[in-house]
Specification:
The protein is mostly beta strands. The protein is 6% helix and 25% strand. Pfam families: LRR_1.
């Protein structure tokens, strides 16, 4: 043991108290026990002669304070201690670690006031993550230019009680990853961010300024100088004016999150220059425009969120055969769309028609090779916010098999096209609060992966098709406030729905309603429209029963990536799917 130089036991399923004596092995240079969520322990007092270069205890149950003697680890280059139970004050002696290159202390419970100058004076420091603790971060400007020697590549300062846009970023021209979410940063993005000889945005791959109080217009330079940017998250601020109009040709953007601001005007056509775009969210703004069919030329677009804006008019027949070829999720709710449902688009949305129940991977901004190169960041999995009876809930990851349509709260009219039944990959379908008429198509019984169906608040007529009883995964069903008649089908999931699913249809009878049917009106057994998929497991990590779509409008309220919100690892349920009770959140990171 005394000759050991390296111990790497990450993700080995270890549990119990970690022996403190191992930290003191005289020749030990590398000690990594990260991602063993059953390991407990405390960091010991370190000795001056300790040779540790790499210390990793991330995602364990290590607790207590960081000892002041940690500053005696003169050889330490990488300290990974994120997502643990550490608390207390950060020792000033961390500023003595002159060889430090990586410091990740995010997602702990450190308190007090922390001077970031302590770390900016470490000339070899490249990666710094302090997000989501309980301290306030300050930057001392006096003689600051003489104390900043670090050239950071990645910086995470989420939920650090920042009030202003960090001025020390003026000297950081090598940043690839910048996250400042869930602070109280007010005012406009400073002009100097665009006027430097080398723009702050030039090297960035991820920029997350979400959940702040930033206002004014979004700087045009963000769209002009972002040749390397993959993720842009500016959601939940107070930005106003128009969306930047000069998106550069050949940019690499995969995610643009501009939702929940005060943006106006039209969607800029230059968004078609974002040829790699997978996720566009401009929901909850004041955008006034017609349906942007031209976005359908983006070959990789998977998620399109336009909800709660001022979009208007009919969705006309597309002029191209291939539009939105990879679209899985579309939310047009709470707008002013009129006319018939877009039958020709439904015919072209091939990605929603595919069923690949064996795929268990999640959508994310970084692929595995990129994550290996940027091992200190997380892969930025896509996430979604859904309203369940007025309560916003967040689904922290989205399987690549997930598909959803929300056209609720518009003025669509006419009948529901039978072709919707060909979109067999759909898990969620919401057409509520429109002016739809005619029967519910029996072809909806083909949607065997469907978990939530809301057709309420329309003018639908005739019987509820018995074929819908074949939807074995249907957790939420709502046809209330229509003009439906006849007996309610029985069997399978239909035996679990209560009165609220059928209210407001005076012609319906049978359980769960108190109105009995004549025997002559009893429903026949369902005819088979497709073979039920009994092998399809949980869509989510624990199903949609907890976060069903809710009644009425707002089926898909928005999507969250960018900032990439995650809960603490110690609460598995709240990590995977939690109610949004406040703007301050925890982030989970890789490493």
């Amino acid at each position: 043991m005394s000759s050991l130089r390296s111990i790497r036991l990450a993700s080995c399923g270890l549990f119990g108290e970690f022996p403190r004596a191992i930290f003191q092995l005289p020749k030990l240079q590398v000690l990594v026990v990260s991602y063993n969520q059953g390991i407990t322990g405390n960091l010991p007092e370190f000795q001056f002669h300790n040779q540790l270069k790499v210390l990793g205890v991330s995602n364990t149950i290590f607790s207590g304070k960081l000892p002041t003697s940690i500053g005696m680890l003169g050889s330490l280059e990488h300290l990974y201690a994120r997502s643990c139970n550490f608390s207390g004050l950060l020792p000033h002696s961390l500023g003595n670690l002159t060889n430090l290159q990586s410091l990740t202390l995010d997602n702990n419970s450190f308190t007090g006031t922390v001077e970031i100058n302590t770390f900016l004076g470490l000339k070899y420091l490249k990666h710094l993550f302090l997000s989501f603790n309980n301290f306030s971060l300050i930057f001392k400007t006096r003689n600051s230019t003489n104390t900043i020697s670090a050239k950071l590549r990645t910086l995470g300062l989420g939920s650090c009680n920042l009030k202003d846009f960090p001025s020390f970023l003026h000297n950081q021209d090598q940043l690839e990853y910048l996250e400042l979410p869930s602070n109280d940063i007010a005012g406009q993005i400073p002009e100097w961010t665009c006027k430097l000889n080398r723009s702050l945005w030039t090297s960035l791959q991820l920029l997350d300024l979400s959940h702040n109080n930033l206002n004014g217009m979004i700087p045009q330079c963000i769209s002009k100088f972002t040749k390397s940017l993959l993720v842009l998250n500016l959601q939940e601020n107070n930005f106003e004016g128009s969306i930047p109009t000069a998106w550069a040709v050949g940019n690499k953007l995969k995610v643009i999150k501009l939702g929940q601001n005060n943006l106006q005007g039209k969607l800029p056509k230059s968004l078609t220059n974002c040829g790699m775009l997978e996720f566009l969210d401009v929901g909850n703004n004041h955008i006034r425009d017609t349906f942007p069919s031209w976005l359908g030329t983006l070959p990789s677009l998977k998620i399109l969120i336009l909800q709660s804006n001022r979009f208007y008019g009919a969705i006309n027949v597309p002029k191209l055969d291939s539009l939105f070829p990879n679209l899985h999720i579309i939310d047009l709710s709470h707008n002013g769309f009129i006319g018939l449902l877009p039958t020709e688009y439904f015919k072209r949305w091939n990605a929603m028609a595919d069923v690949d129940n064996e795929k268990t991977t999640y959508w994310q901004a970084y692929n595995n090779s990129m994550t290996n190169n940027i091992f200190f960041t997380n892969p930025c999995p896509y996430s979604m916010v859904i309203t369940n009876k007025g309560v916003k809930m967040e689904y922290a990851k989205i399987l690549e098999v997930f598909s959803a349509i929300d056209f609720s709260c518009n003025k669509f009219e006419g009948e529901i096209p039978e072709v919707v039944g060909s979109l067999k990959g759909l898990q969620l379908l919401n057409l509520s609060n429109n002016i739809l008429v005619g029967p519910i198509p029996s072809t909806l019984g083909n949607l065997t992966n469907l978990e939530a169906l809301d057709l309420s608040q329309n003018k639908l007529t005739r019987n509820i098709p018995t074929q819908l009883t074949q939807l074995n995964f249907l957790e939420v069903f709502n046809v209330s406030h229509n003009h439906l008649t006849g007996s309610i089908p029985k069997g399978q999931q239909f035996d679990t729905f209560d009165n609220s699913s059928f209210d407001g249809n005076s012609g319906l009878c049978g359980l769960p309603l108190s109105r009995k049917c004549d025997n002559s009106k009893a429903s026949p057994p369902p005819s088979s429209t497709s073979k039920g998929n009994e092998d399809f497991g949980l869509l989510t990590e624990f199903g949609w029963k907890v976060v069903a779509l809710g009644y009425g409008c707002g089926f898909l309220v928005g999507v969250v990536i960018g900032n990439i919100v995650f809960a603490r690892k110690r609460e598995w349920l709240m990590r995977t799917y939690r109610i949004r009770l406040s703007r301050r959140r925890r982030m989970r990171r890789i490493q």
